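Weekly puzzle thread! Below is a chain. First person to post its structure in token form gets bragging rights.
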Amino acid sequence: MLQDMPLIPRRRFHRIVFLLAGIYNVGWGIYSSLDPQWLFHFSGMQPLNHPSLFACIGMIVGVYGILYVEVARRPEHGWLLAAGCWRRWACWEKCWAPSAWQSFLSKASGRSRR
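Winning reply:
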């Protein structure tokens, strides 16, 4: 039954995108688990009191990376994960008003209006 599934349109594109996302997430997850204070040192923030929480987030991101690599291997069978990615992207793109993006980006860059 699963062997008879038709190939998805732009299969090669989907495989490349999910493979790159998987490699990025696995790398980010491993590095964040090994050095959970890296982001705080890099951004000049105070280090966390409980770095194990950030290490846990790194492990979660790493697991998503493994799932993305699996979807890259067999994109026709990864529709459930891909649907979750689409939902997150749609919310990220469409749920935030442009003014929220402007506020977020100005604070992230250190140029907030006062």
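Puzzle host: Confirmed. Bonus trivia for everyone else. The radius of gyration is 18 Å.
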